[in-house]
Amino acid sequence: MIGSRLTSVIERRLLVNYRVDPHIAAALLPTPLRPHLVRGRAVAGICLLRIGGVRPGWAPAAAGLTSENAAHRISVEWDGPAGVEHGVYIPRRDTASRLNAFAGGRLYPGEHGRADFTVREDADAVRVAFATRDGEVEVEVDATVEPADELRGSELFTDLAEASEFFRLGNRGLSPRAGGTHLDVLELSTDAWKVAAGRPRSVRSTFFEDLDRFPPGSAVLDSALVMRGVPADWSQREPFRLGCGAGVAA
Asked: What are phi and psi of 102, to 5 degrees?
């Protein structure tokens, strides 16, 4: 790995959230992960991330790189040495960056596929679309940023503060790696955590619209959140061992 920590700025992070039948979500997870439920529903979604200034912690800011990225995620929990722990299981990561696709799973945690992105955004709206090079996934999201920071229409979260805290605590991303016996683990940390309420105007995702994966009515669009201009570090953690009764990093 290039180092245990990468420094960056989250230029834009759009979280599109679905409420999912917990039994359907559980079937998509490797043992010992289980869905982290909110009001009896699993939480899944898409993270659409433009990250800038990415560099090892020791490198100057001028050396940082910028890229568009996407991750399909399911919020999870597991039994750790100190009790229940939380994170997100990421079955798929995609990027517009050739460097990220090469380095992911080799030089830092998380294998990435290649995708082509189209982005249009201003102060109160974000539109991100991408198609993966392997033809497996297409996503189009058009969302507004709510000026009053009022999270409306969500059945998962009562307000923005509750949604913000839920995702702040689920700051470890666990993703498959070659070999299948472990998950790569990447942890997000920031002293400037701040989210704004979004409102999804239209969302299309072939991942969530796949009826073999999500039968009709089992995955319902719930809400959107937006982060902008947040300095953040990404730290490599020990790989997570899979298998019955595991639940601890190897």
From this structure: -75, -45
User: CA geometry: angle at 71 spanning 68 and 75, to 5°?
Assistant: 145
Count Cβ neighbours within 10 Å for each residue of 102-116 and write b for 16 or more, e otherwise. ebbbeebbbbbbebe
Query: Tens digit of pLDDT for each residue in 7-34?
Result: 999 999 999 999 999 999 999 999 999 9
Residue ranges with strand state E in the chain:
5-20, 34-35, 42-56, 65-80, 83-95, 113-122, 125-132, 138-145, 172-176, 182-189, 196-205, 219-227, 230-241
What CA–CA distance (Å, rounded) separates 148 from 17? Answer: 20
Distance CA 218, CA 42 (A): 10
CB atoms within 10 A of CB 213: 15
Identify residue 13 by its one-letter amino acid code: R
CA distance 22 to 138: 24
CB atoms inside a 10 Å sphere around CB 199: 17
Highest mean pLDDT among 12-16, 50-54, 105-109, 244-248: 12-16
Question: How far are the Cα atoms of 149, 150, 246 from residue 145, in angstroms, in the given order?
Answer: 8, 10, 41
| Cis peptide bond N-terminal to 32, omega within 30 | yes
CB contact at 8 A, 68 and 46? no
**Residue the block writes with tokens 């001028």:** 62
Amino acid letter, residue 44: A
| DSSP structural state of residue 25 | H
- The predicted model scores a pTM of 0.92
d(CA 149, CA 161) in angstroms, rounded, equals 10
